[in-house]
Amino acid sequence: MKNPWTIVAIVTVALFAGAFYFAGGAEDRNNEGIQELTHVKGNPDATVVLEEYSDFQCPACGAMFPVILGLMEEYGDQIRFEYKHFPIERAHPYAVQAAMAAEAAGQQGKFYEFHDLLFENQQTWSQSPTPNAQFQQYATELELDMDQFRRHSNASLLRDKVQAQQAEGRDRGVTGTPTMFLNGERMQYNTYPEFLEQVARALDPNATTTAEQNPDEAVVGEETGEEVRFGI
After folding, report:
1. Per-residue 3-state assignment (H helix, E strand, C coil) for 46-84
2. Strand 221-223 relative to strand 185-186, pairing
3. CA angle 135, 138, 142 (to 5 degrees)
4. What is the mean pLDDT of each run of 10 residues along the chain (232 residues)?
5. pLDDT at 22
6. Which residues contact residue 69 at a Cβ distance below 8 angstroms, ignoring those fewer than 6 apart?
7. Residues paired with residue 52 on neighbouring β-strands, in sequence order
């Protein structure tokens, strides 16, 4: 009769091998069909390039969202805008999940539609114990293929993309969100009107802005993960 400990060892090895096999198979299925995409809106050929490093769960990013929306409505045909991920997990535990959900929607051509829903409903899903339920609801509203959306929301390739953009941001000196780059240079401003004026002047050096801002909402906040630091 074989040593019982030998049998236990064989069974244990088999179980681990099976677990790794099935885990690898699930990862392959989740990554199936993933395309490498850059999320640009506005005019992709514009000479004025605006980049935002942002976190979907960051309140300061939520406050910047309507400012960017208004800017693109007015100047979208003259600006190339690109959203980049910079999730601050220690402050925002759902930020990576939200970023991956948006990327999953992007695989079906609906990144910015999902992006908008995340910011419009930030307080709802941010305070939910099960934010994925909200993410699936938004995907349903956008008429996405739900099986594909669920798989891609867990795709390691998309997680790698989110982490790579965050690493890129750190290399460029990003420490908090939102951080904006205009034509490759990190922007420095303290209020939304200042931000809008800088973009307008990049479009036309003689331009003056007419943006109206509530004084109580004029100060720009940057979330660092430890506190909201005013001024960038």
Report:
1. CCEEEEEEECCCCHHHHHHHHHHHHHHHHHHHHEEEEEE
2. unpaired
3. 140
4. 58 49 69 96 98 98 98 97 97 98 98 98 96 98 98 98 98 97 97 96 80 50 52 32
5. 45
6. 116
7. 83, 180
Cis peptide before 193 (omega within 30 of 0): no
Instruction: Count other Cβ atoms within 10 Å, centred on residue 45.
Output: 7
Are 100 and 155 contacting, i.e. CB atoms less than 8 angstroms apart? yes
19: tokens are 């677990």
What does the block give as tokens for 157? 């390739």
| 184 contacts: CB under 8 Å, gap ≥ 6 | 49
pLDDT of residue 12: 53
Predicted confidence at residue 218, as pLDDT, reads 52
The rounded distance, in Å, linking the Cα atoms of 97 and 130 is 11
Place of tokens 């307008």: 200
| Pair 199, 50: CB distance under 8 Å | yes
- What is d(CA 219, CA 5) in angstroms, rounded to the nearest whole number? 68
The amino acid occupying position 156 is S
Tally of residues, the chain = 232
- For the structural domain made of 40-230, what CATH number should be given? 3.40.30.10
Burial status of residue 148 (CB atoms within 10 A of its CB: 0-12, 13-18, 19 or more): middle
